[in-house]
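To illustrate the input format used throughout this study, we show a single complete record. The first block contains the structure-token representation of the backbone; no residue identities are included at this stage. The design step must infer an amino acid for every position from geometry alone.
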């Protein structure tokens, strides 16, 4: 888990390089506002098995996102349901 929730702030940490981004809580709905903001800054959020990974805009971290997405896609494609062709 790379997102921490505090009484007065949300802190996201990059799963690639460890860079963190802190947001002061601004009331109801502020979490989604933080998510929008972090995406605007070029961060990527990858969901896998209900768990979220966060990666910053660093090129190395973006490469990690691509790798992780490919791994998830491969696993989905490897499931038995794939009979269409
Ligand atoms: Zn990073």
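Output of the design step:
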């Amino acid at each position: 888990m790379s997102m921490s929730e505090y009484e007065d702030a949300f802190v996201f940490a990059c799963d690639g390089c460890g860079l963190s981004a802190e947001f002061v809580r601004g009331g109801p709905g502020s979490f989604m506002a933080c998510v929008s903001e972090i995406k605007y800054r070029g961060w990527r959020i990858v969901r896998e098995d209900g768990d979220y990974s966060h990666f910053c805009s660093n090129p190395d971290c973006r490469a990690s996102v691509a790798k992780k997405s490919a791994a998830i896609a491969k696993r989905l494609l490897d499931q038995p349901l794939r009979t269409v062709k």
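Structural context for interpreting the output: Residues 59-77 form the longest helix (19 residues). The longest strand covers residues 9-13.
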